[in-house]
């Protein structure tokens, strides 16, 4: 479940007791993540051959995105992550989601985890609203039977009751976004990862969407939120972690950390 | 149905740990992709199904008419049956490989949000093309009634034929999908390659019509054996030889194994190259 390239991970996170192991938790230990900067981002066979002939000893540069991040979250924890562009916020979130395997260190999760970074993934324009809800459920890992029972409620909240059988290409962009948002926020997982997911839609819907998002956060055991919107971070989280160049600059009470971050950024 | 405030136990329906990259735990997503692809293709209407099936039948009719005149052969119905039974599997193969090779690169947005096993992408394309091809094949049997097609027990070999075709397609699609992530221009080379391979495979010219001195060269083409599994029972009403079955099956399963192993080996690295 946890993956380690480091033979001796530091045993500094003793605050998670053995009896807690069956409860939802998220433990990040000494997390390092490096990207290799390749000569060409999307090389072709042709360019690779000519490049090799020109400079056979070329090696790709390593770019560290995360350099030793530690934290443990348990039920009830809502962690906000702040930091400048390129500080490693999204890299951290995607590492937790299992997208980027750590270069070093471990990530241990217990409980059902749902990443919400981009809405409407897997939606197909030719398919009906109901079919797209089921498709999204399959990607989120929600059983089809569970989601099928929720379709009426989802369409009602998204104000799309009359469009269940209509291919979503006939919906406006805002309507499709409403459907995507409502689908993704219907069922609370154990661990929720949010990356700036705040929706489009008209003003009336945006208010209801914000309330729905807060309700989802309330019903989820552990939430990790990445956002540049400080009011949202302050409202949703009870702990804030400030990332700076891949390191934890500060970690603790939301008001203190946000104040320090804002002071440093201005 | 759970009430609004009680979290639904995800565990009931096959939940996933972020680091669980087994295809098994993503089977619901794969099944849904399959339904989605077929729904879009057949457009949820009877007319859509009918048209989708009529289309390859018409195309095949044109080609077989043209070629049986071009070859000036007296046994036109037999030739049409041969063409029917080899061209269609080949189209499944070449389309599945072409689309499968592009599939991981095309799946990037999804891969940046969900830790899916990369194999799901080529597998999805191959599943879709095979299912669609089989529906067309079934429709073409209806057409075949007008040719001198006769159902024989040899048709029982068709499940093996389909399995081998599926495995060979998956193998090449999976290999292609990994290679294309690293070298994007290979996608076009694959299109050229399968086109060349088409002409090197006894499809337009049946194997028996190839001059004997060249037959040994064409017999080195493994896809000939896979297609022969369709050709022998459908066009000639006879069982493929044991040798043909062995070569076709060994080739397809080996290819599939290599392809799947390659995707698995690169599974964690590909995301850094997308």
Topology (elements, then pairings):
The complex is a heterodimer of chains A (266) and B (274).
Chain A: E1 25-37, H1 45-54, E2 61-74, E3 78-82, H2 89-96, E4 104-110, E5 113-116, H3 129-140, H4 144-157, H5 173-184, E6 191-195, H6 203-219, E7 222-226, H7 230-236, E8 239-244, E9 247-252, H8 254-265
Helix pairs in contact in A: 3-4, 3-5
Chain B: H1 27-42, H2 46-71, H3 76-106, H4 108-111, H5 120-144, H6 158-182, H7 186-199, H8 212-218, H9 222-235, H10 242-266
Helix pairs in contact in B: 1-5, 2-3, 2-5, 3-5, 3-6, 3-7, 3-9, 5-6, 6-9, 6-10, 9-10
Explain briefly what this protein structure is.
Chain A is an alpha/beta fold and 266 residues long. Chain A has helices at 45-54, 89-96, 129-140, 144-157, 173-184, 203-219, 230-236, 254-265, and strands spanning 25-37, 61-74, 78-82, 104-110, 113-116, 191-195, 222-226, 239-244, 247-252. In chain A, helix 3 crosses helix 4 (144-157).
């Amino acid at each position: 479940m946890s993956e380690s390239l480091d033979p001796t991970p530091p045993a500094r996170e003793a605050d998670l007791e053995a009896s807690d192991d069956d409860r939802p938790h998220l433990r990040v230990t000494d997390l390092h993540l490096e990207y290799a900067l390749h000569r060409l981002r999307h090389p072709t066979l042709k360019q690779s051959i000519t490049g090799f002939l020109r400079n056979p000893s070329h090696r790709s540069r390593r770019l560290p995105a995360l350099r030793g991040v530690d934290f443990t979250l348990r039920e009830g924890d809502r962690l906000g992550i702040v930091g400048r562009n390129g500080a490693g916020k999204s890299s951290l979130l995607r590492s937790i989601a299992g997208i980027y395997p750590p270069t070093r260190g471990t990530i241990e999760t217990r409980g059902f985890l749902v990443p919400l970074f981009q809405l409407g993934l897997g939606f197909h324009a030719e398919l009906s609203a109901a079919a797209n809800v089921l498709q999204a459920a399959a990607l989120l890992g929600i059983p089809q039977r569970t989601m099928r029972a929720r379709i009426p409620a989802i369409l009602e909240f998204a104000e799309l009751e009359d469009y269940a059988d209509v291919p979503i290409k006939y919906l406006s962009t805002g309507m499709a976004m409403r459907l995507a948002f409502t689908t993704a926020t219907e069922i609370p997982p154990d661990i929720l990862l949010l990356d700036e997911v705040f929706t489009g839609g008209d003003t009336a819907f945006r208010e209801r969407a914000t309330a729905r998002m807060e309700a989802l956060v309330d019903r989820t055991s552990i939430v990790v939120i990445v956002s540049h919107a400080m009011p949202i971070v302050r409202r949703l989280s009870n702990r804030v972690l400030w990332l700076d160049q891949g390191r934890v600059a500060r970690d603790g009470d939301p008001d203190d950390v946000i104040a320090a971050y804002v002071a440093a950024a201005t | 149905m759970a009430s609004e405030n009680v979290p639904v136990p995800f565990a009931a329906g096959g939940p996933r740990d972020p680091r669980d990259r087994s295809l098994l735990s993503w089977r619901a997503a794969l099944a849904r992709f399959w339904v989605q692809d077929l729904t879009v293709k057949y457009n949820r209407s009877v007319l859509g199904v009918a048209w989708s099936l009529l289309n390859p039948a018409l195309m095949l009719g044109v080609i077989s008419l043209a070629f049986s005149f071009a070859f000036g052969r007296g046994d036109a119905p037999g030739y049409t049956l041969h063409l029917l039974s080899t061209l269609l599997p080949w189209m499944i193969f070449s389309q599945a490989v072409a689309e499968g090779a592009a599939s991981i690169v095309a799946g990037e947005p999804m891969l940046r949000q969900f830790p899916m096993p990369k194999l799901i992408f080529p597998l999805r394309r191959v599943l879709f093309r095979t299912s669609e091809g089989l529906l067309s094949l079934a429709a073409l049997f209806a057409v075949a009634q007008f040719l001198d097609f006769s159902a024989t027990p040899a048709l029982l070999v068709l499940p093996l034929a389909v399995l081998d075709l599926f495995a060979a397609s998956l193998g090449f699609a999976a290999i292609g999908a990994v290679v294309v992530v690293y070298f994007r221009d290979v996608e076009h080379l694959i299109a050229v390659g399968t086109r060349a391979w088409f002409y090197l495979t006894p499809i337009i010219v049946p194997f028996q019509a190839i001059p004997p001195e060249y037959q040994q060269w064409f017999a080195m083409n493994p896809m000939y054996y896979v297609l022969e599994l369709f050709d022998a029972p459908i066009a000639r009403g006879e069982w493929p030889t044991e040798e043909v079955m062995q070569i076709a099956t060994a080739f397809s399963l080996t290819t599939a194994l290599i392809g799947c192993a390659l995707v698995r080996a690169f599974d964690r690295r590909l995301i850094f190259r997308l």
